[in-house]
Amino acid sequence: MSLNNTPSSERIHIGIFGKRNAGKSSVINAITGQDLAIVSDIKGTTTDPVLKSMELLPLGPVVLIDTPGLDDEGKLGTLRIKKAYQMLNKTDIAVLVVDGSIGMTEEDDRILTRIKEKNIPYVIVFNKMDLITDASVNTRQEIHSLQVSAKNGYHIQALKELIASQLPKELTEKKIVGDLIAPLDFVVLVVPIDSAAPKGRLILPQQQTIRDILDAGAVSIVVKDTELKDTLDKLAVKPKLVITDSQAFGKVSKEVPRDIPLTSFSILFARYKGNLDTLITGARTLDTLEDGDTVLISEGCTHHRQCDDIGSVKLPQWILAHTKKELHFSFTSGTEFPDDLSDYQLIVHCGGCMLNEREVKYRMKCALDQNVPITNYGIAIAHMKGILTRSLEPFL
């Protein structure tokens, strides 16, 4: 991936919701000026959520989520509706498309209530206004509603501007590491190259961190863990910060002098996307696990697992060695995250580089609501290596 490409996790996710034949796909095509979604008079043309990355002015890089109809029928329809509602967990701005010739219905009100409960900025789009002849049709005017016609382009530009105006300010101002450094500071990134490393490229958190360092006007120095000590010895200026891959935490902490701040990519992303205090508390739960407890190890992406995969192999081994308990492990990956977490005494999640902030916080809230401690790979590893306190010092 080019450093100039905006990853999906950093794009604003715009979820398009509504009943079958409300014109969701037509609205998507109208605001993008492209035939991105299939348009048909047949109900239920969109059967599964479809995610499309693109540029949408005046917002910039976004992910548009086209969802199945909220009034779908039958057993499959019920599953499709559930999938549509799940998309709320990754939606930064919700667009509820209503058939303006019919007006708001029970299904529209139901999802609007869920959108408000989740504090998601939203827009209500009364589509098909080209068909309206009766002024009494229920196109009630809420604070963020607009009458449009995807067919003839009526109010489409105004709709794009209205959607853009819902963007939470904090989404555009957060930094991964840029707020911890100053122009011309040296930042050393430790990137182990082993069998699990992707050939010919850096993984997403490393790419994003390098870009954030460049945006801050600082200098990034990328080295393998085997070259770290020689690199530090040759630098005439002491680094402002060393950032390491979590797997090398133990080795790196021994080679980085105590007066040089040290942290990990996982800890940086925990601060960037989630609640760092919650994840720290979760890591300390490792010391209280008992025989027979079950640990859920969850990843936000799917990938080909190597023989020494960190999630399915290394982490369980480290946790067993640390706790000295007979534990059980469960694993999930990708977009699926269990609704019922009652079987788990601890959740260890990946850094979430492939998930947007809203979905990371949703998963954390699911755990907190069910009183299940949650942490992430880097924080758990730092705790087990006895260097968690040191790795948090850059943020104090």
TrEMBL record:
Pfam families: HydF_dimer, HydF_tetramer, MMR_HSR1. One of its GO terms (cellular component) is cytoplasm. SUPFAM superfamilies: P-loop containing nucleoside triphosphate hydrolases. InterPro entries: FeFe-hyd_GTPase_HydF, GTP-bd, HydF_dimer, HydF_tetramer, P-loop_NTPase, Small_GTP-bd. Residues 13-128 form the G domain. One of its GO terms (molecular function) is hydrolase activity. Its EC number is 3.6.5.-. It comes from the Bacteria. Residues 278-394 form the Hydrogen maturase F tetramerization domain. One of its GO terms (biological process) is tRNA methylation. This is tRNA modification GTPase MnmE. It comes from [Clostridium] nexile. The gene is mnmE_2.
